[in-house]
């Protein structure tokens, strides 16, 4: 007979169970994104278990007691059958095992439906007895035993799967997690067995406890360590036992020696308690050491270990020696017999065809092994999109394989990279950082004691990693230097050959410019002369078409003559053959004439060009006026080309000291500012190279003064050559190229007040 409980107790128990089942189901549904299919199976099991347990308890203890329908008495057997099947699915999901084949699940369901259908059909029919050998079974008993058979098969399969997985799992954190499933499984089995025997209250309570433990194990993957709990219980139990035994022995001795009313009984009792209080910590320390020894936990002194390790690696420059010392320390201290040390190099990933922008290219982390304990710890590369690489690159703390297996953030990992991690058989990954950058990695396997890595172990590993930073940076530096020297030796000859080829090509280019410019100068002069004669022939120009052709012919000839003159200037700059005739020159006058010459162009382009009146107040400089005019002419043409219609060009200057060693008597600085498209910083030096063009040449318009007009790319190179021939400097300042906001550019020219020797020795002579 089952235990008859008061109605109030039953109602309170039912209400409490209903609340727990409801809360657990809500939490499981809320966290389904993190636990996946396991949460959904858990919700189904919780709902079924809640209905079955509370229904069976209510049927036997409260509302349905005494009802004649016989199937109510067999409710626990039917419900246990179906719940056992669900628990088997939950066990497979919890252990991260594949679910059973469809035909297995379907066979179980069909079997249960047949038993339930037969029971429902014959519920009100007279009973039928079966004679099996000497055993007489009623229909009711047969159905009960069939339900128990299915229940036993499902829970046996759950128990077998759990034990087999526990035996085959080497990682302590997974073994610890599986350890919590065994009491849940035993609670369900014993609770159902008590329900079968009619112990409704105890059976429902034990089943409920098993369900609660299973729910906690599924929803919380970080569970207290069983071995640590066992050590704690053993240590404190032994300590309490020893202290209690000592107190009992001491009290017995005092009562044996002195009568109860003796004046020394109270002082001696107080002294006994005080002595036991003083030695209790010592006793607890001894029992803790005994428990650690009995349940296989090693101890170490972290401060001494870090100090010895720091001294051992302080002067190491060899990567393999560093790995040997580090891994040897982990082996001797933590009992690690499997592990590896990697150098981490950040490399650019090659673009992947037909891949999205998020997955193509990007960064990758190359893991180079420099030492190992055990086999199969091969190096690899991890994508920066890999969640493990992202964690190790940004989180600055160790990562366990247990977290990789169970945390939702790592579920999207690439299968090849996940397979690499599984092959490693590693428990914890400890990154090494330098200045916030991931540079190394310790990969450590399980401890020989089969203990997990506790928080103090992870703290020690992080400290060791911090101590390794300097040594690892030195090792990386030496490795990089060795590799660099090897690469330099292998490419030195090729670089020398390339340099010689470039010099020959540059000289050939200069020679080509000189030859072409000289060869074109004579025919261009003839062409320009005849075009000018035709332009002065009034009779020839009477025809309108002749007038148009002459203007076009003359404009083209003048443009070609400018190009030839530019090529000649460039040839003289390259060959250092400039002959400068210097005299005192007012730069303000030079600019006034230039601006006047460009008047029609400014009007056509609606450019607002202004020159500071202060230019006339600047002192004269000793320069070749024609050469300086060419400098300013090229700068002004450049400003016109790259300033949009309606833009602004401003010329201003000032006296400056410049470089005191070069400009003994001071210098004049001229600045040409525009509101054009600007120049990117990486191009601001290249634009002074001959033939250099910004942007796409095919998109340039024709005409030397049109917006983004084309040209040979010689103007700024000539300007720099002429300025440097005068001993001056020229450069450009711009925030960048932007054809929408037009940040503009500012070209600076510094010219010495007095004649200065150019860097290449070209000076010419000073005129009067």
Layout of SSEs?
Blueprint: H1 7-30, H2 32-35, H3 37-61, H4 75-94, H5 102-121, E1 129-132, E2 135-138, H6 139-168, H7 172-179, H8 181-196, H9 200-219, H10 226-257, H11 265-294, H12 302-313, H13 319-334, E3 339-348, E4 363-373, E5 380-383, H14 387-394, E6 399-400, H15 401-406, H16 415-424, E7 428-434, E8 437-444, H17 455-536, H18 544-574, E9 581-585, H19 587-597, H20 599-605, E10 608-611, E11 621-623, H21 625-641, E12 648-656, E13 667-674, H22 715-725, E14 729-733, E15 745-752, E16 765-766
Parallel strand pairs: 9-16, 10-12
Antiparallel strand pairs: 1-2, 3-4, 3-8, 4-5, 6-7, 7-8, 9-11, 12-13, 13-15, 14-15
Report the total helices.
22
Structural class by sheet pairing and helices:
alpha+beta
| Total number of beta strands | 16
Give the biggest beta sheet. 6 strands, antiparallel
Query: What would you report as the Rg, rounded to the nearest angstrom?
Result: 46 Å
Distance between the termini: 134 Å
Query: Overall 3D geometry?
Result: elongated
Low-confidence stretches: 62-68, 355-361, 697-701, 759-768
Strand order of the largest sheet: 5-4-3-8-7-6
Mean model confidence by pLDDT:
78
Q: Bin the helical content.
A: 55-70%
